[in-house]
Amino acid sequence: MPAAPLAIQHATFATAKPCSSGNADCLDEFIVDVGTFLLPGDNVLAVDVHNQGARSTDITFGARVLLEEPVLPPPNLSISRAGVVPTLSWPGTTFTLQRADSPSGPWTNVPGPVTAGPFAVTDSAVERYFRLTR
After folding, report:
1. What is the pLDDT of residues 7-39, one digit of tens each?
2. What is the extent of the structural domain holding 9?
3. What would the pLDDT profile of 71-94 be if each residue is shown by its tens digit?
4. Which residue, 33, 52, 69, sits at the end of a domain?
5. In total, how many domains does the chain have?
6. Residue 13 in contact with residue 51, Cβ under 8 Å?
7. pLDDT given for residue 72 in this prediction
8. Is there a single domain that holds both residue 3 and residue 64?
9. Are residues 10 and 30 in the same domain?
10. Could you tell me if 98 and 46 lie in one domain?
């Protein structure tokens, strides 16, 4: 489309095509930085399709939205003991420590919530189960 500050109207023609052949079925891809352009909650995708000329008959529009997130490996939860106090440790701060009285739960966040280790288990007289969750 024409560069700013020129106004783009309904009848404004496209100034370029997405591929050299000019076929309407070639891919015109846009990659958007989520943190810059999208906000938590509802977002609106507005699209305006323009052809290169009044006599062109091959205009096509399709859309696909994908979210790519890095896959984080599961953390290694380790336990050590200083005297009678067990201490849980794990790398990073992207997980929350949870506890339960049985392996089947119910699981609740350790008060805080605790998102980084080490964590000293001060109520070690009570049998507890611990896990990390995102």
Report:
1. 898 889 888 877 776 666 777 787 877 777 788
2. 1-69
3. 777 788 899 988 888 999 998 888
4. 69
5. 2
6. yes
7. 73
8. yes
9. yes
10. no
How far is the C-alpha of 11 from the C-alpha of 50, rounded, in Å?
A: 8
Euclidean distance between CA atoms 94 and 92, whole angstroms? 6
Element (H, E) at 36: helix 34-37
Are 111 and 57 contained in the same domain? no
* Residues forming beta bridges with residue 131, ordered by sequence position: 98
- CB atoms < 10 A from the CB of 24, how many? 15
Angle 100-101-106 from CA coordinates, rounded to 5° = 50
Tell me: cis bond preceding 106? Omega within 30 of 0 counts: yes
Tell me how far apart the 2 most distant CA atoms of the chain are, in Å. 84
pLDDT score of 24: 64
Distance CA 27, CA 22 (A): 11
Same domain flag for 113 and 96 = yes
Cβ neighbors of 67 (< 8 A, separation 6 or more) are 34
Cross-strand pairs, 108: 99
Residues 21 and 52 in one domain: yes
Express each pLDDT in 95-130 by its tens digit: 899 999 999 999 999 998 899 889 999 876 678 899
Per-residue pLDDT tens over the stretch 100-109: 999 999 999 9
